[in-house]
UniProtKB/TrEMBL annotation:
<dbReference type="Pfam" id="PF13532">
    <property type="entry name" value="2OG-FeII_Oxy_2"/>
</dbReference>
<feature type="binding site">
    <location>
        <position position="163"/>
    </location>
    <ligand>
        <name>Fe cation</name>
    </ligand>
</feature>
<protein>
    <submittedName>
        <fullName>Alpha-ketoglutarate-dependent dioxygenase AlkB</fullName>
    </submittedName>
</protein>
<feature type="binding site">
    <location>
        <position position="161"/>
    </location>
    <ligand>
        <name>Fe cation</name>
    </ligand>
</feature>
<feature type="binding site">
    <location>
        <position position="217"/>
    </location>
    <ligand>
        <name>Fe cation</name>
    </ligand>
</feature>
<dbReference type="GO" id="GO:0005737">
    <property type="term" value="C:cytoplasm"/>
</dbReference>
<dbReference type="GO" id="GO:0035515">
    <property type="term" value="F:oxidative RNA demethylase activity"/>
</dbReference>
<keyword id="KW-0479">Metal-binding</keyword>
<dbReference type="GO" id="GO:0035516">
    <property type="term" value="F:broad specificity oxidative DNA demethylase activity"/>
</dbReference>
<feature type="domain" description="Fe2OG dioxygenase">
    <location>
        <begin position="143"/>
        <end position="245"/>
    </location>
</feature>
<keyword id="KW-0408">Iron</keyword>
<keyword id="KW-0560">Oxidoreductase</keyword>
<dbReference type="GO" id="GO:0008198">
    <property type="term" value="F:ferrous iron binding"/>
</dbReference>
<dbReference type="InterPro" id="IPR027450">
    <property type="entry name" value="AlkB-like"/>
</dbReference>
<feature type="region of interest" description="Disordered">
    <location>
        <begin position="105"/>
        <end position="138"/>
    </location>
</feature>
<keyword id="KW-0223">Dioxygenase</keyword>
<dbReference type="InterPro" id="IPR037151">
    <property type="entry name" value="AlkB-like_sf"/>
</dbReference>
Amino acid sequence: MDSLLPRERVEVAPGAVLVPGWLDPDRQHELLAACRAWARPPAGLRRTRLPGGGVMSVRTVCLGWHWQDYRYSRTVDGVPVKPFPAWLADLGRAAVLAAYSPGGAGAGRTAEPGQGANGADSGGAAGPGSGDGEGGAAAGRYRPDIALVNFYDDNARMGLHQDKDERSPAPVVSLSLGDTGLFRFGNTESRRRPWTDIPLESGDLFVFGGPSRLAYHGVTRVLPGTAPVWLGLRGRLNITLRESGLP
């Protein structure tokens, strides 16, 4: 989406921070290539069937742990879940640092993917634990081991929900690629107002933790044709990183 004025970092709610344009074009290309590799079978991109029989409109592939029916498992239809690469954990720590320590990390370039697109750990770059204050401490402690990669076509939506199937209270890191998604970020009590609607553009980072960790959130619509032409993606990809707290 083109904007006349620069978009600025904003704290949407306590512990919930938007960092616009955090992923630079090179990093966006690298993440897109990784997502396309992860989407391939086995244990590839699929629509999740809910306990009530409904099928989600988004298509998802999971790394580290597979989410389905409000629980996590290590297998998908009897096939092992794709591994969670070390470089992605490094990127998650850089994201937490960027959100909670402004100026502590920039442009999403801290970690290098190496061979991560094929599911192999590269070992990553040094983690961003050197930031100042609470933000640096939070980043240094962050150990994500789950990624949910969601693909939205023009008609896909995500209803308001809480990310509460993890045992860890660590923040959720959300990275956006492709078409702009209208992200609704609500309160921790119910799906009712108050909420804030936020356009998440390609390259944007959104982190929510602390008092906002269990806030209801969802995607009300996708704006077709808003992805950067140079990215070569129609639709929206959202990569969310989480710390499971599971053994």
